[in-house]
Specification:
Chain lengths: ~425, ~110
């Protein structure tokens, strides 16, 4: 028979009455709460005889040392509570949960005015402060990502940047919502206390935090797994565990640890996404080019003397490739083809990506500054290509091919033949 | 309009301050207040701790002894003034009540 149980913590930290009722219901079924995980995500229970216990959640003064048993203020607080039969069962920096076996104990809180002030003091310290710090960090990261991506807005379609920005955006939204939710409840509660002397229960639960946390975690894991970087993921996990364990040694207060852990949790995936795969450190992973010059040269009957391949930009290999393939010849003029492959796996971004690539070719010319440029749709008889455009600027031979989930922009330095055009369409199709 | 902090006292605040006209331990106050009020008013231990802390923060009371878990407190001059002001407010209210009842009878 199982003697221990774990349950998700779906309560907002300032929803004391719901927590108390939950513990009392569980105790009546024979499960008494005895712990809260360090991440505040799980309650743990042990089995006892079903009994009508009373529970009370209090928001005591902050801990001055890591261990509540060495904190004088906390001990003085407990001594008062124990006088009325309230025994501490769980102790964190933010709250202390008490249990009382008496049939009709004196409530722990008897004045709503005092209680709302103590809740607000605890929440400002342990909820709002870490949220604001995390919000500042996230906004900075999002700002860096946006600033780096701004020169070429099509970079937003790339998985690393998209995932990073999406994750950061979700977190920012979550934090702002939580802060607004808290202050909305606090002002309503304060008013209610002044008028009626009761504290209303806050609506909602921690479920949104769970869903968004899992979504962000899955985004990150997917991102890691896509690049076969599970080892890096494990490494980060170890760093996180090391930091969360380190505060035992440092004996720093809980709010500082909470803030540090929040920073690490936010910073690690963000930095890893931004630095490893996306913006700052492009990696060359194009072992096999989908289209090589030889395939075109054989049709053009050109004998290459030497072949140079180089990366124009390798931002995020599975979703976006850009390659320059250059061929020099004694007998033929300078021959070069450059192509950019943009795979868009998020359908709503497809039209937007095509528009972004066409946009540059739809500007009004400014004499001596901007040359005439335009794009026009062209007819092409290829089963995989839905639409094709010719992009004209000076004497460029630049084309845009739109497949189902891929957009290809290529530029050749010579007038390509219809046969070469079809070869390109076939070789670069998804 | 939001109430100014400690401008008017709640019942619990009033009795805590009344207790602290003489030096008193927090633990003792839990028994003293029900005795003073014939069991009509009981202050929860969580409320008492928070009240003592908030009163001390704004200088209404001061800590006189700190013996680890046991701490004693005493009203300051500011606290005395506040208690007196609250007493006068309550008196004014009861006087208004009496006057109103007299008018009613007439």
């Amino acid at each position: 028979m199982k003697n221990r149980q774990t349950r998700l913590n779906l309560f907002l930290p300032y929803n004391r009455t719901r927590m108390e009722k939950f513990f009392e219901r569980r105790a009546a079924k024979g499960w008494v709460v005895d712990g809260l995980s360090r991440t505040s995500l799980f309650w743990s229970f042990h089995r006892t005889q079903p009994q009508p216990l009373h529970f009370a959640v209090a928001y005591p003064p902050p801990l001055t040392s890591y261990n509540p048993d060495f904190c004088e203020n906390r001990l003085a607080f407990r001594a008062l509570c124990e006088k009325d039969g309230w025994k501490p069962v769980i102790s964190t920096d933010t709250m202390e949960i008490f249990c009382n076996e008496s049939e009709d104990p004196v409530p722990l809180h008897t004045d709503a005015v005092v209680e709302i002030a103590s809740i607000h003091r605890a929440m400002r310290r342990s909820l709002i402060r870490p949220y604001i710090i995390s919000l500042l960090i996230l906004t900075t990261f999002l700002g860096i990502a946006s600033f780096t991506t701004l020169p070429d807005i099509s970079l937003y379609t790339i998985s690393g940047v998209t995932l990073g920005c999406l994750g950061m955006g979700l977190l920012i939204l979550l934090l702002i919502t939580r802060i607004i939710h808290y202050y909305f409840w606090y002002h309503k509660a304060k008013k209610s206390v002044e008028q009626a002397g009761i504290i209303p229960d806050p609506r909602g639960s921690n479920l949104s935090v769970w869903i968004i946390s899992i979504a962000i975690f899955l985004l990150w894991v997917t991102h890691r797994a896509t690049y076969n970087m599970a080892c890096t993921g494990v490494g980060y996990l170890l760093i996180y565990l090391l930091i969360s364990k380190l505060h035992f040694q440092l004996k720093c207060p809980h709010w500082l640890t909470g803030t540090l852990v929040a920073i690490v949790l936010v910073a690690i995936p963000t930095v890893s996404i931004l630095t490893e795969d996306a913006i700052f450190d492009p990696r060359d992973t194009y072992a096999d080019l989908p289209l090589t010059m030889e395939e075109l040269i054989s049709e053009q009957d050109v004998e290459p003397q030497f072949l140079i391949t180089s990366d124009a930009r390798s931002v995020d290999c599975p979703l976006m490739n850009s390659k320059n393939v250059l061929v020099w010849s004694d007998t033929q003029p300078y021959t070069c083809i450059t192509y950019l492959i943009l795979d868009v796996h998020f359908p709503p971004l497809y039209d937007w990506s095509v528009d972004q690539l066409k946009y540059h070719y739809n500007v009004t010319p400014i004499p001596y500054v901007t040359p005439a440029s335009a794009y026009e749709e062209i007819d092409i008889d290829h089963p995989a290509v839905n639409t094709a455009y010719r992009l004209q600027e000076d004497n460029e031979n630049c084309y845009l091919l739109c497949y189902d989930t891929r957009v290809v922009k290529f530029d050749a330095t010579w007038d390509i033949t219809p046969e070469q055009f079809l070869t390109i369409c076939t070789e670069l199709q998804p | 309009m939001p109430r100014q902090k400690f401008k008017t006292l709640t019942e619990q605040m009033f009795y805590v301050l009344l207790c602290l006209r003489e030096e008193c331990y927090g633990l003792d106050m839990l028994d003293k207040i029900p005795t003073m009020t014939d069991g009509r008013v009981r202050v929860g231990s969580g409320t008492l701790y928070n009240l003592l802390e908030q009163f001390a923060d704004v200088g209404i009371i001061r800590e006189t002894k700190n013996e680890g878990r046991r701490r004693s407190y005493l009203l300051t001059d500011k606290g005395h003034a506040m208690l007196k002001a609250e007493y006068e407010r309550l008196n004014a209210m009861t006087a208004d009540y009496r006057n109103f009842l007299k008018e009613d009878r007439v």
